[in-house]
């Protein structure tokens, strides 16, 4: 099927970044088509219905410094509620269970001191990267790209318990073991999120809040904002038609031909004098295998880099981008939710949070509502352990979840009788191949080619959370990338156009900057006090060792 319409822009991918991009362009009367390979909206956000509620089985949490996603939640007339964390936490490490109510697990003073120092060092190194859009300017970028995060851990952490605690934290954030991550990639990730603490913490961090009605619902609402649709269903799939906005589902893009109407002219990568050059998109209906062709003036690719690499490009994309995207892969994760008749763990004084260094479930959180309704536990099989658990049945994964919960929460018999279990194996999802973000290992030239992730090539633009310099890997990053590509495209149609930052967002940014300055001042005070406490603790520990040595000699 050949489309006669020439679209101003085609967007590949109907996740948050794709739908937000399409909405921003449509609002400027730019004619947009969104092509999505799946039969649903949402990308790496997804939900499952249970007891008349949409449960997030993909991206879920939002943080207070993620102003774009918080603004979108308000625009969509949705609300947030805090992630439950009151009560005792559970840590299992080296075969030993710790149940504690304090902020710090009682694993040993020497480990806590070392971990705090390590976190400070990571933040210090991340802050040496002055510009995430040009990380190659940092003199040490090549060195830190040549080692894995595991290499750095082995070189800089003395105690094995400290190593394990850091490894668990990294696994929870990246859905991958430290050995699979370039140290430079880790530093850029933490730089984009404002530091290690913000990425890992609940209160004040990336896991502080949840969206009532599911984060996935935001994509559904964005799709409705994009369209005033009439829905036509036939043997070629489902096509939603709207005013300046169109979405076609079940449409896998497999080929992109740039300068289609002028194949004999040289492509100009700087986008000079090529505004009239058209791009032809070839897509296949994943149900009927019917081939369709679309013409556009601009193309935005929002799918993850590992999937974007599977598309055929004519002419080929620059070598640096191809080399980088071929080296990138998704983290590995299976997310589950297990439901109970009541929040019995809260009755026992537990928060629902579990951290485990075993070879199955790494993290759990309370999935219930703030008032205790809809009792549930959310958990994750992550990293290389996912390979084994992906091969097992859902019932086997359910039994493992029950076992971990039973053992963690005082072996309470109520853990053994959940009323329902659901999970999603993201590694088996054809259109993501893992979750939740792309990662890259050491010695993959990330320091050289990072800029190519977001660099415009002719009239082809790239978005998606991996291309973001703010909260990369999160929903916030997806929205930031949508703003960036919109700012690249809209001036082609509106010459004197000003960047897409509205007055409300400017006010929010100013307020957040003031809040961050206040927080930094408070943190500096707290950090100073912590430093004194740690120094005193270290001196005490040293005196303790000297005293023991002296006593043993006697």
Number of domains: 4
Radius of gyration: 25 Å
Classify the fold: give the CATH topology of the largest domain.
Answer: FAD/NAD(P)-binding domain
Helix percentage: 25-40%
Say how many strands there are: 23
Task: Output the keywords.
22% strand; 10-stranded mixed β-sheet; 4 domains; FAD/NAD(P)-binding domain; 554 residues; alpha/beta; Guanine Nucleotide Dissociation Inhibitor, domain 1; 23 strands; Polyamine Oxidase, Chain A, domain 2; 7-stranded mixed β-sheet; 17 helices; globular
Give your account of this protein's structure.
The chain is of the alpha/beta class and 554 residues long. The chain has 4 domains: 222 residues, FAD/NAD(P)-binding domain, CATH 3.50.50.60; 96 residues, Guanine Nucleotide Dissociation Inhibitor, domain 1; 103 residues, Polyamine Oxidase, Chain A, domain 2 (Alpha-Beta Complex), CATH 3.90.660.10; 49 residues. The chain has 17 helices and 23 strands. Strands 1, 2, 9, 10, 11, 12, 13, 14, 15 and 23 form a 10-stranded mixed β-sheet that branches. The longest helix is centred in the last third of the chain and has 51 residues. The radius of gyration is 25 Å and the shape is globular. About 3% of the residues have low confidence. Its EC number is 1.4.3.-. It catalyses: a secondary aliphatic amine + O2 + H2O = a primary amine + an aldehyde + H2O2. GO terms for molecular function: monoamine oxidase activity. Its cofactor is FAD.
């Amino acid at each position: 099927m050949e489309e006669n319409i020439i679209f101003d822009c085609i967007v590949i991918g109907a996740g948050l970044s794709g739908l937000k991009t399409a909405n921003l362009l449509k609002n400027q009367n730019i004619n947009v088509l969104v092509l999505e390979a799946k039969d649903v909206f949402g990308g790496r956000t997804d939900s499952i219905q249970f007891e008349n509620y949409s449960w997030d089985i993909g991206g879920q949490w939002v943080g207070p410094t993620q102003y774009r996603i918080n603004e979108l939640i308000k625009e969509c007339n949705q609300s947030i509620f805090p992630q439950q964390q009151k009560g005792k936490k559970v840590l299992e490490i080296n075969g030993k269970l710790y149940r504690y109510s304090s902020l710090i697990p009682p694993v040993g003073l020497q480990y806590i001191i070392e971990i705090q120092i390590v976190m400070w060092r990571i933040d210090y190194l991340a802050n040496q990267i002055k510009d995430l859009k040009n990380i190659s300017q940092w003199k040490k970028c090549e060195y830190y790209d040549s080692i894995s995060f595991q290499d750095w851990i082995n070189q800089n952490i003395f105690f094995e318990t400290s190593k394990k605690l850091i490894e668990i934290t990294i696994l929870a954030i990246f859905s991958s073991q430290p050995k699979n991550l370039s140290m430079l990639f880790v530093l850029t990730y933490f730089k984009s999120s404002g530091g290690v603490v913000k990425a890992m913490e609940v209160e004040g961090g990336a896991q502080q809040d949840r969206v009532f009605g599911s984060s996935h619902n935001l994509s559904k609402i964005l799709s409705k904002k994009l369209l005033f649709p009439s829905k036509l269903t036939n043997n070629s799939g489902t096509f939603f038609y709207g005013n300046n906005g169109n979405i076609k589902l079940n449409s896998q893009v497999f080929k992109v031909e740039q300068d289609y109407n002028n194949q004999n002219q040289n492509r100009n990568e700087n986008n000079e004098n090529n505004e009239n050059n058209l791009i032809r998109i070839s897509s296949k209906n994943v149900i009927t295998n019917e081939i369709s062709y679309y013409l556009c003036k601009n193309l935005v690719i929002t799918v993850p880099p590992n999937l974007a690499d599977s598309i055929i490009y004519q002419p080929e994309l620059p070598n640096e981008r191809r080399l980088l995207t071929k080296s990138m892969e998704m983290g590995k994760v299976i997310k589950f939710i297990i439901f109970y008749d009541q929040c019995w763990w809260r009755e026992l004084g537990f928060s629902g949070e579990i951290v485990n260094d075993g070879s199955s479930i790494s993290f759990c959180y309370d999935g219930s509502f703030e008032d205790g309704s809809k009792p549930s536990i959310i958990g994750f099989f992550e990293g290389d352990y996912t390979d084994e658990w992906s091969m097992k049945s859902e019932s086997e994964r359910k039994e493992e979840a029950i076992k971990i919960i039973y053992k963690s929460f005082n072996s309470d018999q109520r853990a053994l009788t959940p009323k329902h279990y659901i999970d999603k194996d993201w590694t088996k999802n054809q259109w993501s191949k893992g979750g939740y973000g792309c990662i890259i290992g050491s010695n993959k030239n990330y320091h050289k080619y990072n800029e190519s992730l977001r660099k415009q090539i002719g009239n082809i633009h790239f978005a998606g959370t991996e291309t973001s310099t703010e909260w990369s890997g999160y929903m916030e990053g997806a929205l930031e990338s949508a703003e960036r590509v919109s700012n690249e495209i809209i001036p082609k149609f509106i010459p004197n156009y000003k960047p897409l930052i509205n007055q409300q967002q400017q006010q929010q940014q100013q307020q957040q900057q003031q809040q961050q300055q206040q927080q930094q001042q408070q943190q500096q005070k707290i950090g100073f006090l912590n430093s004194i406490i740690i120094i005193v603790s270290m001196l005490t520990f040293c005196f303790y060792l000297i005293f023991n040595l002296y006593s043993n000699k006697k």
